[in-house]
Amino acid sequence: MSDAQTTAPAGTAGLERYEHALMGTYGMPMRMLERGEGSYVWDADGNRYLDLLGGIAVNALGHGHPAWVKALTEQAATLAHVSNFFATAPQVALAERLLQLADAPEGSRVFFSNSGAEANEAAFKMARKTGRGTIIAFEGGFHGRTMGALAMTHKPAIREQFAPMPGGVVFLPANDQEALKAAVAQAGDDLAAIIAEPIQGEAGVQPLTHEFLTLARELTTSAGALLILDEVQTGVARTGAWFAHQLYGVKPDVMTLAKGLGGGFPIGAVVAYGERAGHLLGKGEHGTTFGGNPMGAATALATLDAIEDEQLLANAKNVGAHLTERLEQLDGVVEVRGEGLMLAIGLASPQAPAIAASAIDAGFIVNPPSPDTIRLVPALTLSVPEADSFLDWFAGHLAANPLTQDGGR
Ligand SMILES: *Cc1c(COP(=O)(O)O)cnc(C)c1O
């Protein structure tokens, strides 16, 4: 995107103002973005990008999907917010819809939040409400930045400056069955919950094995503890199933959702399976002002409808398989991980940040969650030709810049 500029680009001026007005929590943004349509976004200088990050697995329907825009604008004009002293039809319909998609048994209930971290906060309080003290979480897991969610998130770099954390959380390596059995045995009657992402997203799309998740289910069932699955990133058709745990044939006691649920509108949810989990939190024991507000619920319903009407579960599977097949043929790619349209390209050397920087200059937004991993979590509407445009660029880039063990220098 190197069109000659006679004046300073609009984006550059905007980013300078950003730096002086916003806290530096995110580092410098890559571009000022102005608008989006389908799988594409445009920056403030008119350059177009194929968006393979989708707002971090959020824009399930891409940008500006007509049915989503209609649902949001009609709901905004009808009734935007009421507080939880009142119910609204979209909120009730969305709760019923989630219970149905989750195949949740009689007695199951939903709680609405505004984000993934808040959904996990509610799950954390449910674990505490069992009266037991120990929560097992996994290395590589990410559950959010609020104190409770952070207490269950392993990464020392984002935790340790904020000590003390709420206590009782034990971290284990993911996929280590012996370590899990030992920790559950040690916790005994005190085990409140195991929390896990079926596929760890921020760790670079690292799936739990079927055996491991099945073991976690068996151990929590026999201990009378909760299996909490954080599907904030994997949920809502991202993996080609409505929820990733359905690929494993394992049903949780508690599932948390956010990211893709509102298709770009902030909404999170906790689905509590069965009578016990469904009633752990009672009157006055949890709440949030915006939770389940009608605009969030209406956009989530529109997102779920479009996923169904446009067969996006199948599209996620098909386009994901196509990406995987072509990526696996490339020199420099050592593995492709993930399911559906939640994919990681494992590189032969730690060049992911440099590749992501070249990609955006070439008009493709991808994300490097770790030095040797490129993550793709695009709109579930991504087409094969759109995927191919990236694959063609990436193949050419790798051919011109082969990855070597010394890091390509
Ligand atoms: C993004 C994410 C969160 C946190 O969600 P926020 O909406 O950013 O608070 C929690 N868990 C997982 C698995 C995530 O990917």
Overall residue-averaged pLDDT value: 96
- Please report the first level of CATH classification, the CATH class of the largest domain: Alpha Beta
Number of domains: 2
Bound molecules: pyridoxal-5'-phosphate
Tally of alpha and pi helices: 15
What order do the strands of the largest sheet run in, or round the barrel if closed? 4-12-11-10-7-5-6
What descriptors fit this protein?
Aspartate Aminotransferase, domain 1, 15 helices, globular, binds pyridoxal-5'-phosphate
Can you describe what's shown?
The chain has helices spanning 10-21, 54-57, 66-78, 89-101, 116-129, 147-151, 156-159, 177-187, 210-223, 245-248, 274-278, 294-309, 312-328, 352-361, 384-400, and strands at 33-37, 40-43, 48-51, 109-113, 134-138, 169-172, 191-196, 199-200, 206-207, 226-230, 254-257, 268-272, 333-339, 342-347, 364-365, 367-370, 373-376. With 409 residues, it is α/β, with parallel strands linked by helices. The strands form four sheets. Strands 4-12-11-10-7-5-6 form a seven-stranded mixed β-sheet, with helices on both faces. The model has no long low-confidence stretch (mean pLDDT 96). Bound molecules: pyridoxal-5'-phosphate (PLP). Pyridoxal-5'-phosphate binds at residues 115-117, 120, 142-144, 197, 201-202, 230, 232-233, 258-259.
